[in-house]
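Hello everyone,

My group is preparing for a crystallization screen and wants a predicted model to guide construct design. The compound we'll soak is zinc ion. Before spending weeks at the bench, it would help to have a computed complex in hand. I've included the protein sequence and the ligand's SMILES below. Output in structure-token form would be ideal because that's what our pipeline reads.
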Amino acid sequence: MRILRAIFILCFSLTIISLAACGSAAPRIFDGARAHRTHVIAQTNFGARPTGSPANHATGDYILAQLTEAGWKTETQEFAYRGVPIRNIVGKQSEGRGPLIILGAHYDTRARADQDKTDPNAPVLGANDGASGVAVLLELARVLDRARLKNEVWLVFFDAEDNGDLNACALIAPPCDETRWQWSIGAAYFAAKLNAKPEFVVIADMIGDAEQNIYYEQTSDKALQEELWKIAARLGYTREFIPEFKWAIEDDHTPFLFRGIRAAVLIDFDYPYWHTTQDTVDKVSGASLERVGRVLQTWLENK
Ligand SMILES: [Zn+2]
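Reply:
Good plan to model first. Here are the tokens for the complex, ready for your pipeline.
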């Protein structure tokens, strides 16, 4: 994603014996440590995952396998952008139950660490910028209590978010030219092809920083943000979910906003390792993933 402008105004499963005894599955609660050790590590073990690379494709296959294992119906949406194959991945749950809610995250990583002072041509590993949002969505796929959902829910894993403003010579695919890539290519395509009109779209991006500060984002739907931040406050996350506007960010929520859909991005843009080679697993904490995951779980299960 990119900054539009900055203003400085700044599982464990809960074992409920009675439920287990009568044969129902015990409700689960989002486990951030599990999300980190399972999904952040699995993604970063593939290496950098820029769009069109074998590691990107392997990550997509991993997401598909995890969704299937968790009992979600899966679909892919494939197309090409300047000759590079792009693949969005969708997990669907509770189809037809109620208005559609989409949670999204990008799974590609930036092809070049252009904010890195010493190694700007290296790729970004994307432990936070990429893997953290995906890890939250995959852990949610496992823990969401489907019996409590009153909405149809899609988890959408967008490709090709994070090469914006890089020119094609910096990327892996020919032909080499100086034309810059756009941001959120996967999300823009997805939004353009969408037949349904979702009630809400919430994107999680760069939310795993151990020093977590999530502010309202200026372009996002205000009422939707207020609703999510109120849940965060009830869960005791007042230090990390700060109900003040700070950054304005173009991200995967943007194409939905352009289509009149209520959308928001959860993003912690106060991350010193953004688009550097230092965006590594040690910067991401399970506790941070857990806060975001539990806010989204509480929101979806009580809507
Ligand atoms: Zn990025």
